[in-house]
């Protein structure tokens, strides 16, 4: 009856609420500022000073060879400068599993800062060294850093958070991504650093958050789940939990971790291959792939690409467009901040459905408005409204929630592999959109938004029928819910959970109990 008593104890604790302690708030802010902020910053930082950087490329080439750079070669170099960041992000995602399993969550964040600081120094000194190749190389390094940070930070914070705050804390990394984008837009104004003299400083500033994190994060605790389940050190896990919760009584959470630990011992750590072939995690894996593809293929990059053109057509002066772009970045920050406060009350599922729904409707109306704005004057203003509504939808649902759900849908042994898969899909789709969108825009024009509309609609339909609500549930409880999707049934005897019934194609098949089939 031991496991049953633990289950009863867990159930009795279901109504208890974890609180936001000062230590938990500090580790959340330090982790998100030192890592997620830089992801957003480096997504946006090269947009404003692009003409000055391209002039530097041309002048450097001329000084070396005595002839101007061919326009085709210039386009290739700039495309590499932009696209190497998401490509590096893909490689960084592939490094997540080995690093977090061997070095821990906190240790991986500390190691990743070395990539960021190295890239910042190289980019900041590139003009002095008269080399544009180092900028392209540094973008790969920074991408590797962003690929690590974008996956490890949600995992780290999700494992440290009490279940009633896990969603809100899980959205904080996305909040800092939007803040990073906004700060890059502000510093990139022509009057600040977005000019011929300031762009190397603008690129090099990205190392400062990493330096702050490198100096402060060692004083904060490691993930208690990593300490207990993977390192087998219950005493350290207990001490870490007591510090994070601000109280000595953490027995209920320790018991939940023990239960997860016992049921996972037979499995060991999942590799990406075993995760992809394991029937008990079929729908969890499909869900994160669909949500990550929907997040990146829903048209967010296209909307930002069209934004300047839309504002110009609405009568905004060419010199003021960059200020309007900053205001759009501010709306993105405000709406993501709103998601932090409403995710625990409304839940993950409703925010995903509302977010993709707003994006879908905005893309459909934007297609119409862009096609009619030359004949109907007020259509330009409708286009601006569509852009703002789209940004709101993406900020409250499509951007932040998928990373939260990767943490929640997988248990300790499979979570690193799940983040590797989700992160790889995220960065590959990002890279693909950057590669093909210009061709889509050239061939389809505004009608390219109909493709994004269809992707948003498909994502919304999938979420409605498959993705469950995970609000205020333990990791094991969420996996029990997903067991129904995977056609797995649980059998309990008086002492412990010994086996389960899996029903593929109507044939019952007995196997040893697996925590992921709970």
| End-to-end gap | 18 Å
Give me the Rg, rounded.
24 Å
Mean pLDDT: 85
Which CATH-level-2 architecture of the largest domain?
Answer: Up-down Bundle
Provide a short characterization of the protein structure.
The chain is 74% helix and 3% strand. By secondary structure, it is mainly α.
Walkthrough of the structure:
The chain is globular, with a radius of gyration of 24 Å. It has 518 residues and is mainly α. The longest helix is centred in the C-terminal third of the chain and has 30 residues. The N terminus and C terminus are likely disordered. Strand 1 and strand 2 form a beta hairpin. Helix 2 crosses helix 8. Strands 1-2-3 form a three-stranded antiparallel sheet. It is built from 23 helices and three strands. It folds into three domains: 204 residues, MFS general substrate transporter like domains (Growth Hormone, Chain: A); 214 residues, Growth Hormone, Chain: A, CATH 1.20.1250.20; 36 residues, no CATH class.
What's the SSE blueprint?
Elements: H1 2-12, H2 22-44, H3 50-65, H4 71-94, H5 96-124, H6 126-129, H7 133-160, H8 166-187, H9 199-204, H10 207-216, H11 224-230, H12 234-245, H13 251-264, H14 272-277, H15 282-297, H16 300-313, H17 321-346, H18 348-372, H19 379-398, H20 401-409, H21 415-444, H22 448-466, H23 475-485, E1 488-492, E2 497-502, E3 509-512
Antiparallel strand pairs: 1-2, 2-3
Helix pairs in contact: 1-13, 2-7, 2-8, 2-10, 4-7, 4-21, 5-7, 5-10, 5-21, 7-8, 7-20, 7-21, 8-17, 11-12, 11-13, 15-20, 15-21, 15-22, 16-17, 16-19, 17-18, 17-19, 18-19, 18-22, 20-21
């Amino acid at each position: 009856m031991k496991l049953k008593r633990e289950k009863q104890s867990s159930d009795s604790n279901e109504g208890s609420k974890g609180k936001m302690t000062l230590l938990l708030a500090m580790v959340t802010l330090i982790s998100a500022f030192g890592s997620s902020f830089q992801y957003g910053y480096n997504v946006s930082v090269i947009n404003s000073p692009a003409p000055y950087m391209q002039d530097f490329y041309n002048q450097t080439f001329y000084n070396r060879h005595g002839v101007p750079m061919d326009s085709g070669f210039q386009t290739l170099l700039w495309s590499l400068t932009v696209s190497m960041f998401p490509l590096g992000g893909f490689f960084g995602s592939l490094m997540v599993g080995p690093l977090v399993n061997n070095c821990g969550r906190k240790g991986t964040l500390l190691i990743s800062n070395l990539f960021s600081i190295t890239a910042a120094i190289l980019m900041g000194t590139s003009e002095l060294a008269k080399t544009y190749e180092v900028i392209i190389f540094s973008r790969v390094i920074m991408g590797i850093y962003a690929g690590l940070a974008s996956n490890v930070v949600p995992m780290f914070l999700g494992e440290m958070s009490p279940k009633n705050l896990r969603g809100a804390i899980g959205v904080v990394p996305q909040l800092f991504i939007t803040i990073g984008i906004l700060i890059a837009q502000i510093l990139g104004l022509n009057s600040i650093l977005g000019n011929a003299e300031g762009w190397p400083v603008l690129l090099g500033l990205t190392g400062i958050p990493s330096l702050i994190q490198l100096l402060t994060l060692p004083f904060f605790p490691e993930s208690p789940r990593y300490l207990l389940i993977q390192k087998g050190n219950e005493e350290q896990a207990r001490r870490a939990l007591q510090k994070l919760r601000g109280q000595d009584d953490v027995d209920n959470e320790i018991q939940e971790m023990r239960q997860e630990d016992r049921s996972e011992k037979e499995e060991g750590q999942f590799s990406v291959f075993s995760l992809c072939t394991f029937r008990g995690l079929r729908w969890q894996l499909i869900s994160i792939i669909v949500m990550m593809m929907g997040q990146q293929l829903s048209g967010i990059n296209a909307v930002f690409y069209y934004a300047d053109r839309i504002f110009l057509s609405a009568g905004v002066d060419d010199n003021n467009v960059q200020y309007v772009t900053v205001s759009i970045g501010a709306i993105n920050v405000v709406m993501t901040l709103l998601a932090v406060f409403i995710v625990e009350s409304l839940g993950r599922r409703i925010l995903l459905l509302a977010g993709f729904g707003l994006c879908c409707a905005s893309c459909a109306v934007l297609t119409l408005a862009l096609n009619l704005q030359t004949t109907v004057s007020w259509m330009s203003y409708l286009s601006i409204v569509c852009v703002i509504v789209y940004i709101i939808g993406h900020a409250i649902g499509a951007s932040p929630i998928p990373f939260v759900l990767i943490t929640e849908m997988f248990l300790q042994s499979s979570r690193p592999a799940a983040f590797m898969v989700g992160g790889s899909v995220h960065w590959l789709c990002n890279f693909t959109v950057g590669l093909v969108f210009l061709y889509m825009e050239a061939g389809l024009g505004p009608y390219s938004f109909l493709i994004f509309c269809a992707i948003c609609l498909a994502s919304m339909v999938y979420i409605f029928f498959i993705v469950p609500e995970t609000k205020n549930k333990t990791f094991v409880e969420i996996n029990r819910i997903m067991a129904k999707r995977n056609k797995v049934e649980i059998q309990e005897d008086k002492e412990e959970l010994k086996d389960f019934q899996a029903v593929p194609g109507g044939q019952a098949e007995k196997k040893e109990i697996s925590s992921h089939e709970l």
